[in-house]
Amino acid sequence: MKKGGASVTDATTGVTVLIVEDDAHIGGIVADCLGNAGYVCTQAFSGTEARLVLEAAAARGERFDVVVCDLMLPGLPGEDIVRLIRTADAHTPIVVTSARTSATDKVNLLKLGADDYLAKPFDLDELLARIEVQLRHRGRALASQPGGDVLCVGAWAIDRAARTLTVDGAEVPLTRTEFNIVELLAAHPRKVYTKQELFELAWGEPYAAEDSTVSVHVSNIRAKLKPTGTDGYVQTVWGLGFKLAVDEGA
């Protein structure tokens, strides 16, 4: 088990996880569990320490494969850590763990860029399963395709191998889940996806979330697209779900 400030192990020797948890007992249990599953863990016991660990990793040109982060932390709160990571990197999976379980808390964290939210007390097997889901998405993202695979819809250009969305040549930063949703909609223009379909395809797991989960991600996508003038591509089909319609009135 690695404590705060330790170097990020090279990805060839294992998947690296930053555990940000001020309760040493809980953090140790999580680190032991993930370590036994083959993950290489680094612990930070405050928001301030987590920031220093992330900054040190970035200075070495490294990044963690997954971040598991509590919210109520000394120094910097978990929300600031999520914001810090997302400002520098749109792709690192962030799994938030917290005793705060209100729908508002969950929605706000998703808006900040968290990929998943696990309420305390949580089952360690469930945490492992959720991390594995996030890594499967990242594995798809890293899988290159011969000759490239760019999907063009209207002003959008979606590079599936690079996992990027550009609008008229300018890249729009998306989280992995946001990209999954955009890619699904763009691959089948005018097809109406229900919230359940989008969740199961974008998250890669059975639909067991509140209705707001998918809606919040779609809202985030629209907000990021608004400066490009293409936020209207993603349309709500009331009572059904969402679709991509490039032409007005489609």
UniProtKB/TrEMBL annotation:
<dbReference type="GO" id="GO:0005829">
    <property type="term" value="C:cytosol"/>
</dbReference>
<dbReference type="GO" id="GO:0006355">
    <property type="term" value="P:regulation of DNA-templated transcription"/>
</dbReference>
<dbReference type="Pfam" id="PF00486">
    <property type="entry name" value="Trans_reg_C"/>
</dbReference>
<feature type="domain" description="OmpR/PhoB-type">
    <location>
        <begin position="148"/>
        <end position="246"/>
    </location>
</feature>
<dbReference type="InterPro" id="IPR011006">
    <property type="entry name" value="CheY-like_superfamily"/>
</dbReference>
<feature type="domain" description="Response regulatory">
    <location>
        <begin position="16"/>
        <end position="135"/>
    </location>
</feature>
<dbReference type="GO" id="GO:0032993">
    <property type="term" value="C:protein-DNA complex"/>
</dbReference>
<dbReference type="GO" id="GO:0000976">
    <property type="term" value="F:transcription cis-regulatory region binding"/>
</dbReference>
<dbReference type="GO" id="GO:0000156">
    <property type="term" value="F:phosphorelay response regulator activity"/>
</dbReference>
<dbReference type="InterPro" id="IPR036388">
    <property type="entry name" value="WH-like_DNA-bd_sf"/>
</dbReference>
<feature type="modified residue" description="4-aspartylphosphate">
    <location>
        <position position="70"/>
    </location>
</feature>
<protein>
    <submittedName>
        <fullName>Response regulators consisting of a CheY-like receiver domain and a winged-helix DNA-binding domain</fullName>
    </submittedName>
</protein>
<feature type="DNA-binding region" description="OmpR/PhoB-type">
    <location>
        <begin position="148"/>
        <end position="246"/>
    </location>
</feature>
<keyword id="KW-0238">DNA-binding</keyword>
<dbReference type="Pfam" id="PF00072">
    <property type="entry name" value="Response_reg"/>
</dbReference>
<dbReference type="InterPro" id="IPR001789">
    <property type="entry name" value="Sig_transdc_resp-reg_receiver"/>
</dbReference>
<dbReference type="InterPro" id="IPR039420">
    <property type="entry name" value="WalR-like"/>
</dbReference>
<dbReference type="InterPro" id="IPR001867">
    <property type="entry name" value="OmpR/PhoB-type_DNA-bd"/>
</dbReference>
<keyword id="KW-0597">Phosphoprotein</keyword>
